[in-house]
């Protein structure tokens, strides 16, 4: 025991004063059962809990910890920034540098505004899209999660999927009416909706590659990727495309998923296209609360104070957060993406081998370095497929992995996250636990 208070005691105390004992639903282990370990420290690919256990981490704080935990350069940058002041509520140099980094790295982003979470980023992007078009309707896809924005909770992924919720109570009928939910990847459904209601639609919002119902690779048809199809369909009707790269940004590839299916990417031919607005979070904050939305300069110019779209934040562009984000992006060079790609591929192979040997039906899907494991044989093309997996097999697998010292996302609907700290030795530790976990899943 390193701490004097166990996770069990902390969880029961937490439940007295915090709803369900957690500040974000999936953390409660509601769908897999059991007490969540309360984490006390982390370094590299390893986590430590209040009970003295060590785990190999495959959650990475749901994406931000792409260089591993407590990375020396990131911690030093935050420490140095903290010594200069925690928050100014006024312009500071770090926010300029972070915005420049994103604008330089992500082609469609001409201007960027920093916020404090991915939720704020998508919420603000919707507002800009509605203002720009003078229209109300937003199109989203079932199983895509864009944060807990009222208008975007219908048939959302992530925790909404984990707990099999249709959406959320507390969202007004008027708000829900302005959101149309379509099956992911269904071009005919998109075309039919635009044929009928095209002139009412402000924007389509999509995860650049869905990762919150597990990872779904955007489908190609006749050499045209799904995102390009969405961009062309939206534009033909005077609507916008918002590409949510909160999760995929700076992770799926150096240029996010746009670096994989955008013009100029390896193997991509044909027309130039770009989302009008993009949203980011997670990696660009390096573990501190940061989100961002950006895109075409004419659209971003609609924001106050120059334009009529109000959007603001007491802590937006916070100096500690921008220091962490900048240090993280500085660590993400070509060599870092090589390591991430290799760790991701090795882990996929190890998991596939273990599950195949144990006779567990599964399919592994990827979007660049991002991947997830579905406990069903057939490919997962959308939310209905994702929901049709054997979540009980996942639960047995999850607990066996945890017992063996590997911390997976506590839900069958989430991506698995590696970092540059997932060295071959760390992957060996995971490999040693996989046979027992696969056998547990097979029971
Ligand atoms: N968009 C996507 C694609 C996400 O994966 C998430 C969070 O997981 C969000 C938006 C919301 O981000 P946040 O949790 O920072 O509000």
Automatic annotation (TrEMBL):
Cofactors named for this entry: pyridoxal 5'-phosphate
Superkingdom per UniProt: Bacteria
Record's catalysed reaction(s): (S)-4-amino-5-oxopentanoate = 5-aminolevulinate
GO CC terms: cytoplasm
CDD domains reported in the protein's UniProt record: OAT_like
SUPFAM superfamilies referenced in this protein's UniProt entry, alphabetically: PLP-dependent transferases (SSF53383)
GO biological process: protoporphyrinogen IX biosynthetic process
Class in the EC hierarchy, top level: isomerase
GO MF term list: glutamate-1-semialdehyde 2,1-aminomutase activity; pyridoxal phosphate binding; transaminase activity
InterPro entries, per database record: 4pyrrol_synth_GluAld_NH2Trfase, Aminotrans_3, PyrdxlP-dep_Trfase, PyrdxlP-dep_Trfase_major, PyrdxlP-dep_Trfase_small
Entry keyword rRNA-binding: no
Enzyme Commission number(s): 5.4.3.8
Subcellular location: Cytoplasm
Keywords per UniProt: Cytoplasm, Isomerase, Porphyrin biosynthesis, Pyridoxal phosphate
Pfam families: Aminotran_3
Gene3D superfamilies according to UniProt: Aspartate Aminotransferase, domain 1 (3.90.1150.10), Type I PLP-dependent aspartate aminotransferase-like (Major domain) (3.40.640.10)
Pathway listed: Porphyrin-containing compound metabolism; protoporphyrin-IX biosynthesis; 5-aminolevulinate from L-glutamyl-tRNA(Glu): step 2/2
Modified sites of kind N6-(pyridoxal phosphate)lysine: 282
Recorded family membership: Belongs to the class-III pyridoxal-phosphate-dependent aminotransferase family. HemL subfamily.
Subunit structure: Homodimer.
PANTHER family: GLUTAMATE-1-SEMIALDEHYDE 2,1-AMINOMUTASE, GLUTAMATE-1-SEMIALDEHYDE 2,1-AMINOMUTASE 1, CHLOROPLASTIC-RELATED
Name of the molecule in the record: Glutamate-1-semialdehyde 2,1-aminomutase
Gene source species: Brachybacterium avium
